[in-house]
Design a protein that fits this description.
The structure holds 2 protein chains of 2 kinds. Chain A is of the alpha+beta class. Chain A contains 7 helices and 22 strands. Chain B has a 5-stranded antiparallel β-sheet, with no helix packed on it. Classes of the chains: A alpha+beta, B alpha+beta. Chain B: Keywords: Membrane, Protein transport, Transport.
Chain lengths: ~425, ~1000
Amino acid sequence: MIHSLFLINNAGDLFLEKHWKSVISRSVCDYFFEAREKAVEPDNVPPVIRTPHHYLINIYREKIFFVSVIQTEVPPLFVIEFLHRVAETFQDYFGECSESTIKDNVVIVYELLEEMLDNGFPLATESNILKELIRPPTILRSMVNTITGSSNVGETLPTGQLSTIPWRRAGVKYTNNEAYFDVVEEIDAILDKSGTTVFAEIQGVIDACVKLSGMPDLTLSFMNPRLLDDVSFHPCVRYKRWESERVISFVPPDGNFQLMSYHISAQNLVAIPVYVKQNISFFETGSSGRLDITVGPKQTMGKTVEGLVVTVHMPKVVLSANLNATQGTYNYDPVTKILVWDIGKLNPQKLPNLKGSLSLQSGAPKPEENPSLNIDLKIQQLAISGRLGSFISVGCDSLPAGPCDKALLLLTLF
Amino acid sequence: DSPKNKNSMIARGKNASDLFPAVVKNVACKNIEVKKLVYVYLVRYAEEQQDLALLSISTFQRGLKDPNQLIRASALRVLSSIRVTIIVPIMMLAIKEAASDMSPYVRKTAAHAIPKLHSLDPEQKDQLIEVIEKLLADKTTLVAGSVVMAFEEVCPDRIDLIHKNYRKLCNLLIDVEEWGQVVIINMLTRYARTQFLNPNVNESLLEENSEKAFYASDDEEEEDKKAEPATLAKRKPYVMDPDHRLLLRNTKPLLQSRNAAVVMAVAQLYFHLAPKAEVGIIAKALVRLMRSHSEVQYVVLQNVATMSIKRRGMFEPYLKSFYIRSTDPTQIKVLKLEVLTNLANETNISTILREFQTYIKSMDKDFVAASIQAIGRCATNIGEVRDTCLNGLVQLLSNRDELVVAESVVVIKKLLQMQPEQHSDIIKHMAKLIDNIQVPMARASILWLIGEYCEHVPKIAPDVLRKMAKSFTNEEDIVKLQIINLAAKLYLTNSKQSKLLTQYVLNLAKYDQNYDIRDRARFIRQLIVPTDKSGALSKYAKKLFLALKPAPVLESPFKDRDHFQLGSLSHLLNAKAAGYQELPNWPESAPDPSVRNVEVITLLERVTTLTSIPDWSKCSSRKDRKEKKVEKPFYSDSEGESGPTESADSGNCGGGKEKKEEAGQDQSKEASRGECREVEQSSSAEDRKRGRKAVKNQKSASESESESESSESEEESEEESEEESESDTNVRKKKTPVLKQPPKQSKKESKKETQEMSLLDLDDYEPAPASASVTPVNFLSSSLVSDLEGLSLTDTILAPTTLAPSGSIKMYELLHRIKGEGLAVEYCFSRQPFSPEPNMVAVQIQFTNNTNSETKNLHIEDPRLQSGMRIREFAEIDVLAAGESVTVVMGIDFCDSTQAANFQLCTHTRKFFVSIQPPVGELMTPAFLTENDFKKEQGERTSALSRFNTHSCPSDCSFSSKHLSFFSFYVAVSL
């Protein structure tokens, strides 16, 4: 299974290594560097690299390459999934997963890696258990630790690993029992030049923050489960119950987790909330171009569109952009050739517009085609899938008699 | 020095080994963090400083005896991680001890330690296999994943170790942690490939058969069979092994896992094992993975590409999910193109081509090149669009981007080779291009085209050669070779115009730096230029050069990858990785399925180990929880509805009942544990037949009660008849009506076992009702008996069968003797169709009058039922004499719910409120099926279930539950 792990930053510095079996020289990473160089973009590094004696499986996250060394046959997804889990754990512990935080917390990182794998086979990957083993750092605790000399390592050993519910720690107690569910939906759509939808789908996740005492057993049901095209669950969800009754029944982990993700692919259902009028043209002579983009609301169901960001991947020959935005700020990165226009809130009365000229590399031929636009936006309090509707009823099957007899369940939807 | 510093040194890859002695001293430190850090350090450097590492061993040995399971586990973990050969015996001992530890967590650690020891000292393999065998028998989900991992690493070829644990693994699978699931599923895929038959072997036959069988009654079926013995003899109809089905069914929900590796593992299992019709369900899950991280996408797309070649239809509905986004990394784009190309067919080609057209405009040049190649492949595969594609490609020739043009040239060359006659103008057009195009591959392609079809362009060809001869020295090698080729071909067809040019080119080539070119020139000169001593070959030169060449077949690079297990590293690399286990081919005939049968006693043992784990529960509440867990395995439980199916396929349910009851008992844990161990050991020596019996036993265990007559010989003969039926499917067909009996028979056979089991503390078994001999209804209708007689069965078998009382059917008390003032009423579910109303469950009620006076006018009054439920009362009993008992049958339609039916039972003097609540298992209709019927029904069942899911109207409800019963019953029979 997983032999060693190397963390490499974008600049190609190897800043952490961990071996679960015998030590493998870091020179094995030379093969990775070679591939990295060939790929130009960090995205294009092949996830699996073959070397004479080892296989390198790597992921790229938060500007860090997680490179694992494999010696024998193992499902590549197994390793990839695990590496992502490692990155998520770091994020969970330190708030972000970056080179500096990892370097700052190198001891905790090391302890975590030690607990997560045994002899290359995953041991404890649930954050609930890990947090019992190794407490996440907080400012207060690190202060107390330096004064008293105590440590981040849990004094008592976790019990979660022993139960049949490995994702939940035992003995949880809250004075306020609450559970929050957030439904986050994303539309993924490809529009062609004329604005017709080529492809659209909705992806949703339900994030939960459950703070309930004891061993609560929750159920969550949908008004219209038929809409859900495809779902995947946190392991705490009972699959059989879902299959037979379309009810999500689970004993939640403590704290934040992603309960489920779903997918709705009905094309006609998807109403794209904004429209974009764009006109990007390049002149045959004079090595310049013109850009004119207007964004307007389409079907927002009375809600305001927020966090609107338009990203344009410009052709390579575009050197700089001299634009004028009626709203928000724009930024053109001449290295990556990406134009980002951060609009913010969409005002339906006064439509934001970005206009101006582009200067091209002189002598280079006119770019062949118009660049593609990516639009990101946020709408609070609206589920695009619409008909899934006001749907969640949470039943508490067995709430233990905690400090308060009747558990208070708060729901925040969307 | 704080150990923290040292570890950060390790993390940065610096050598901290000179501090070793100082650190090792800390190993006995009380502070847990220091201890852990020291462990990390120790494990890292022990290999280099073996002697010093030995100093710490005693600490761990002490730890191994610690009363706290977690300390035992961590001691074992570190001990086994120290790679020092001297301590191998100590490790071996520790592992063996830990493997029989009471805590499953320690056993899990032991399983983890096995591969460590194996890699340190492979000579221990045999001993380790013993440990693995022992741990494989473990019933906890915690251990399962780890031990299978150890199995895969140490002895993946010992498939025989899996047999006994196969069903258990299947049933536990859903509760195992994610990583273990992946390993287990991969292993089971391999296992299934060796043990079961290929479900796709004779699909066509199956289809036509089931078509008929669905409408045919049993008798007609019989005739059908006779009518087509020829076909049957030729090809045995495929019957899926119930264990095979079990695996497929238990892995299916895992497609919903959040872990991509699990989903992929299930997908490959279905791809390799499932019947064609069922493979489709994995497509949706795989498409879902495409929304994950790009690395995940990369791996998934590789696998989808392979699958889409073999099972194109599977992904067609998801075509649009493979459309390329401008933000995808190039490698993902190329893979998506591959999939799109594989999916292209006559119906969707126009949309795909339109997509491709947009792709060509992309800025990513590698991707554009790949798109053009994809168009070329579509054109070769789908004849109708060949001309369209060709035209499109020709248009691309005027593209300003040289790379696009070059790539198009290469692709056009391949396409033209298929039908050169009609396209001489394209060739002419391309000949003009040669002045501009610099990409060697494209130039070479054009030259080849002109040379090959120089007869179509007689005027241009020599001119091109002239130009090329001029620039010969500056060309790339690949172009030079093609120039020589062109020269040779022209020389042969048109020697008048090109003789000198050819000579010139050959002379240039003669002094080229590249020996390939020199060789080629020499060879061609000998071959074509007539000299005095030119060999016989030169006569055939024209044939050699201008032979009709077969058009190249453009095929996917993923074409033959499916001989690797999908989802594996080897598949991804298209090369065998170290330690890759070949996916075996399906066997010709299935190995004996009975090897997978297990004894029931081991199940009991599991219960005791689980409940008797000491020092887990410091607080009683947790203990309670744990015991609850034992009753209901956490999420493999299904709150009712899947209960019957489960019981049918593995017999777990029977065990489960006992479990529950036993868990409630307060018993000296240690003692009972030891006892069970002994029993288990002795029973494991039992022969195969016993094992078979035991399985039946499990099924009946939940309701087994004491029995009357049954003789050993009868058992034997029954066994034999069943065995025959299993070995020969044809025979089985004929016997299907007979095979109805096994459940009943088995109950009889269970008698012996029951007694044996009661040696254990099974006082929770139902006390035998005094009147067990009351035969409820006629178990076998007379027509059935005559059916049976028609078959070649001996009377010895028949006799006990017809007599077979349903004594083992559980009697429930409806009215106690005292409460009923002397009238005792018991009821049972006779499991017979209730003839007046097929929807109703037949409830057999037995009245016993214990008073010394007559009871009169026994009847039902005032039923209070849930909506939809109905009762068909029994005919009023006029008189029940003192001491007498009488049995009647009533029908209740429970509407497939487990709601109780309440009603009043009236005598001439009194009224009693009673209620009948059905256990889930009793709501089934028994149905008798042949295999083909079963197949058909099963298909129906899945569709019915899905309908059930969407509409959930009552009629569908009952439909599906009835079909469930088909299934469970079928399994019961085939065991």
